[in-house]
Amino acid sequence: MRLANFNLDQLKALPLRAIVAFAARCARFADEQADTELAELRDKYEARATTLRRRIDAARDSAEVAAEQHEARERDDLLSSAGSILGGLLGGRRSRGGLMGQLGRAAGRRTKTGAAGGRVTTARNKVARLEDELADLEAELADELTEIDARWRDRATHTATITVPLERTDVEVTQLVLAWVPMP
Predict the structure, then answer these.
(1) Which terminus in the chain has less CB density within 10 A, N or C?
(2) What is the spatial distance between Cα 119 and Cα 46, in angstroms, rounded to a whole number?
């Protein structure tokens, strides 16, 4: 006995209902298998994506704090430098050395402000790097999902004919009938 998994070339000889029913069963089975693989894949990537999202949120918070500190330091430097220099010039009793000391302190504050700006840049670069990692992870997941879908779609449509031999235990006699048919 032969059981046929219908091949596209053979489909023309079969009733359309049988073809559609068989194709639907194959598609359902392939969808179930693909869903199982997708669930495993989703679990694998979900933990990594969640970790990256948390790191991105923390890096954004850090970048915002660094930016606020940098802006505050710039305001303080401007006001402090202007106040010190104007006070030294208009105060009247200061010597040239005292005025130069105030200029040196103002330059030191500008250096600290520049360092704070560097921290802002570093924090923003970290956010961008983490966002790139998340985008790469999502692209990798999309590639794997596409591969799984394509593989199971191909398996659902790829059919072959197989031979299944009958065995003695496969046959069962349930009723024995004797009939007389007259011959003309």
Answers:
(1) C
(2) 31
Q: Which residue carries 């401007």 as its tokens?
A: 78
The top-level CATH class assigned to 2-155 is mainly alpha
pLDDT in tens, 65-105: 888 877 777 766 666 655 555 555 555 545 554 545 555 55
Give CA torsion, residues 40, 42, 43, 48, to 10 deg. 140
Closest CA to 125 of 52, 70, 56, 51: 56
CA distance to 45, 52, 119, 166, per residue, from 145 (Å):
11, 20, 39, 41
- Contacts for 73-76 with beta carbons within 8 Å, 24 or more apart? 73/109, 73/112, 73/113, 73/116, 74/113, 76/109
Tokens of 7: 């091949």
Q: How many CB atoms lie within 10 A of CB 123?
A: 19
Q: Is 89 in contact with 28 (CB distance < 8 Å)?
A: no
pLDDT tens for each residue of 13-56: 455 667 677 778 888 888 888 899 988 888 888 888 899 889 98
What is this structure's pTM?
Answer: 0.51
